[in-house]
Amino acid sequence: MLIDTHVHLNAEQYEEDIDQVIERALEAGIERMVVVGFDRPTILKAMELAEKHSFIYAVVGWHPVDAIDCTEADLKWIEELAAHPKVVGIGETGLDYHWDKSPKEVQQEVFRKQIRLAQKVKLPIIIHNRDATADVVRILQEEEAEITGGIMHCFSGSVETAKQCIDMNFMISLGGPVTFKNAKMPKQVATEIPLDYLLVETDAPYLAPHPHRGKRNEPAFVKLVAEQIAELKGISVEEVAEITTRNAMKLFSIK
User: What pTM does this model have?
Assistant: First the structure.
């Protein structure tokens, strides 16, 4: 059994064949999926999917790229949704300095507000980080994010940064890039970080693993991520599946 801890089945790329995508995931042994909403339309769709399927859970939050659009009413709505039994985390939130839609100071303020919100509702935080590692780590430290902990989603940083995050009560989640031939840092992280601190994800429809790179990703492919981690660690894929699943269920309080 595997859990895809971060998937966007609420994306428009699945509008035509969502049922078949879910069926392929179940057939591949992906028994639970966490659908992440990051603005009003995707949050609504995540909630709809979580309510429809017993094996789908939702994470709700506001993406840093769109932080400039986030209002106090949006944050209040997210806080209200957090009481839903199928909502298991707050996010994805964080910082993204690659795109320039939202100024850095706006992103940082919305990030801080969501960390505090997560602490208030006692849910883990799912972190998006692109080209902003130093500020992400600093803000997590300043806001005492270890109180709730959470996930460094689709982690692409160094082993040293991974250890910093683990010290703050965060799990390290690896996705498709760990299977890419030249992805040195994700492979190092997969090799050196103990399995007790690792999760697997797809971030589908993005970042499809080898040999599907460049195509639409889907949750069934999370098995390829687990297989790569198993190969790098020299252990069975069954062990990777068992421990990463246990890690996810504990973090998300899923029974």
Answer: 0.97
User: pLDDT band at 255, cuts 50/70/90?
Assistant: confident
Closest Cα to residue 194, out of 224, 153, 163, 228? 163
Token pair, residue 124, equals: 């883990």
List, for residues 178-198, the tens digit of each pLDDT value: 999 999 999 999 999 999 999
Please report where in the chains the tokens 């994700």 appear, as a residue: 186
How many CB atoms sit inside 10 A of residue 135's CB?
A: 17
C-alpha closest to that of 157 among 135, 195, 131, 127: 131
Distance CA 63, CA 4 (A): 19
Q: What does R_g of the chain's alpha carbons equal in angstroms? A: 17
Q: Which helix (H) or strand (E) holds 49?
A: helix 40-52
